[in-house]
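note to self — DONT lose this again. spent like an hour looking for the file last time. sequence + predicted structure for the chain T wanted, 165 res
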Amino acid sequence: MNTTIDGAAEGGEARDEETALALRLWIALARAHNAIATQAAADVARHGLTVAEFGVLEALYHKGPMLLNEVQRRILVSSGGITYLVDRLEKRGLAERRDCPGDRRARLAAITPQGEALLASIFPQHAAVIRDAMRGLDADGKRAATDLLRALLHGAGEETPEEES
């Protein structure tokens, strides 16, 4: 079913106020995410990376070596997707796979010195792009929005990752 901005279904079907508010919020969230994601994607593309590749490198840069499934959960890609991303980053010398000391069956992803140098050089500017894209909210607004979005996440049955707590 397609919805319009006012929350009514196409064809004029009436909606209750709670549903209309939820639909308006969904549209606002989607538009805000798209606007900010477009700026973030353009920024990392300047460095020859996709948003997903940047996400892998950023996670490894800030958290250190991680199991592939941990990286997968943090950047929200499929298991096949994380394999593909790490393969691409390995070919470019930005990430590598390592044996897991505690489990011979498991593999860790780690950022290489070349990847670390790249992230160290581009992360401050990328963070500034994100900050500037969110200039529509002051500090209190950002805190309130973060709290509200965490409540939405929890209400949707998802747990908040510990690094965001």
